[in-house]
Write a structure and sequence with these properties.
- The structure is a single chain.
- The protein is α/β, with parallel strands linked by helices.
- It contains ten helices and 14 strands.
- The structure holds zinc ion.
- Zinc ion binds near residues 72 and 74.
């Protein structure tokens, strides 16, 4: 489905069929050269949706560049297949590095799951799922044009400012059109779901980047906000406050688990937290358990960095406890 959102700016709903997010909102800015913002998974259905929408709008990929808000497969995987000879594919510099080293990037969660406290059965099941379909494994290769904070692009008569919004991914980049106070926010701000911030390494602190980059956006006048999934239910600034409050509550809940249970692995902490699902922790699908543990590690890294918790390693398992 195509919907006009502003002069020369269209939303294209791209089916995803995956879990809670049943579609991606891609956007097209029509101009002498067009800019397609996000692409979707590399599937025939997705490819047909995008090329069909361009055709309906009287154009094609020949005249279109691509801007990827971030490197996750539901946004970036199709870009290589869509890109023609003349297509520039823009993406934040940090995410370009990750996509240029895909073998490493998409295998991180397979490294040493026992150190995170995963029981062997869950780790074996993850290997099974990974073997079925690893991201980008069948995708056409793609040359990326890196963008950095403050870079300006011009499409459809609009000046678009690249804003570094790392957190959900290390190189997530939003686009802001000052003239019409419009923000393409990717997955940095979503409305009826909280953007996932996760890590597999407690030495980086994506939650700090994420929350700082949310606070940074409060300095921008935003009248139209265009997220990459689902709709908009309140103002951008209201939503920023809600998401910041959510993470503070989450950090409090995690501290409470450590207070009650003492030194715990990321897996044990995740199993003791509340999750917004219809099933119990034991019944949660393996892939979701891995996402949950990734989220827990991001929050643990934030608390470690703040000096509120300590880490030790016992029998090869990472354990976290309240700071003594
Ligand atoms: Zn997404």
């Amino acid at each position: 489905m195509i919907q006009k959102v502003f002069d020369n700016i269209y939303k294209i709903e791209v089916p995803m069929r995956d879990g809670a997010l049943n579609c991606l909102n891609a956007y097209l800015i029509l101009g002498e050269r067009n800019l397609l913002i996000d692409t979707g998974f590399d599937r025939d259905e997705t490819y047909k949706t995008i090329t069909g929408a361009l055709c309906e709008l009287g154009t094609s990929m020949e005249d279109t560049d691509i801007f990827l808000t971030h490197m996750h497969p539901d946004h970036a995987e199709l870009a290589g297949r869509l890109a023609g000879k003349n297509t520039r594919v823009y993406i934040g510099a940090e995410d370009a590095k990750l996509l240029n080293d895909r073998e490493k990037t998409f295998n991180v969660r397979r490294q040493n799951p026992s150190s995170k406290g995963f029981p062997p059965g869950v780790a074996v099941d993850y290997e099974r799922i990974h073997a079925l379909r690893s991201p980008f494994s069948r995708s056409a290769s793609c040359t990326y044009t890196e963008v950095n904070d403050g870079d300006m692009l011009e499409y459809g008569g609009y000046k678009l400012r690249c804003i570094d919004c790392a957190g959900h991914s290390p190189g997530q980049t939003c686009l802001y059109i000052e003239d019409i106070k419009l923000l393409f926010c990717g997955d940095h701000i979503l409305f009826d779901i909280t953007p996932n911030v996760s890590s597999w390494d407690d030495e980086v602190n994506p939650l700090k980047d994420y929350t700082e980059n949310l606070k940074k956006l409060k300095a921008y006048d935003i009248e139209i906000i265009l997220p990459a999934h689902r709709g908009v239910t309140c103002s951008a600034h209201e939503r920023i406050d809600q998401i910041l409050a959510h993470h503070n509550e989450r950090l409090d809940e995690l501290m409470e688990v450590l207070r009650k249970n003492g030194a715990s692995s990321p897996y044990d902490i995740a199993s003791a937290l509340t999750w917004n699902t219809f099933c119990t922790w034991d019944d949660m699908p393996t892939f979701q358990k891995y996402s949950a543990v990734g989220e827990v590690i991001a929050h643990l890294a934030f608390l470690l960095d703040s000096g509120l918790i300590d880490k030790s390693v016992e029998g090869g398992v990472d354990l976290y406890s309240l700071a003594s």
